[in-house]
Amino acid sequence: MPPPVNMAKIKFDGTMFFKENKSGIGVVVWDENGLVLGSCIKRLFQAYSAMEIEAMAATTALVFSNDIGVRRAILEGDSLAVIKAERV
User: Fold this and answer.
1) Beta carbons of 28 and 35 less than 8 angstroms apart
2) CA distances (Å), 18 to each of 15, 21, 26, in order?
3) Which pairing describes strands 36-44 and 8-17: parallel, antiparallel, or unpaired?
4) Taking the domains of the chain in order of start, what are their residue ranges?
5) CA-to-CA distance for 7 and 73, rounded, in angstroms?
6) pLDDT over 90 for what percent of the chain?
7) Which residue range or ranges hold the RNase H type-1 domain (predicted)?
8) CB contact set of 68 (below 8 Å; sequence gap of 6+)
9) Three-class SS of residue 63?
C-alpha cells in the first residue's frame, strides 16, 4: 500500500552473504503515488548478526531519506525488534 498523501514509505532490508563473509543493505523510498524517490545499496565487508544488519539497515534508511529531503515517512522493515526498539 502507498503511504498517505504528503508522506513517503521507506523500505529497508539487510542480508548476509555467508560464503563471502559479508553483509549488505538495501533501501527504497516511495511517494504517495508509488514513484521511487530514491534508492541505495551498501555493501559491508564484514558479516554481522541478523539483528545488527537490520539495525544498520534501518539507520541507513533514515539517514538516506533525510538526505534526499524526506521529512514525513512510514518506515517498513522485516525486523519487528528493530522497528519497536526503544531509545536507551
Assistant:
1) no
2) 9, 5, 17
3) unpaired
4) 8-83
5) 5
6) 81
7) 12-84
8) 29, 37, 38
9) helix
The single-letter DSSP state of residue 3 is P
Q: How far apart are CA 5 and CA 19, in angstroms?
A: 43
What CATH class does 8-83 carry? alpha beta
79 and 49 Cβ atoms separated by less than 8 Å: no
Alpha carbons within 13 A on the beta-carbon side of 43:
5
Contact 50, 25 (CB under 8 A): no
Q: Is-contact 26 44, C-beta < 8 A?
A: no
Residue, of 86 and 13, whose pLDDT is higher: 13
Give the per-residue pLDDT at 13.
Answer: 95
The CA distance from 14 to 71, in Å, is 23
- Identify the pLDDT of residue 87: 55
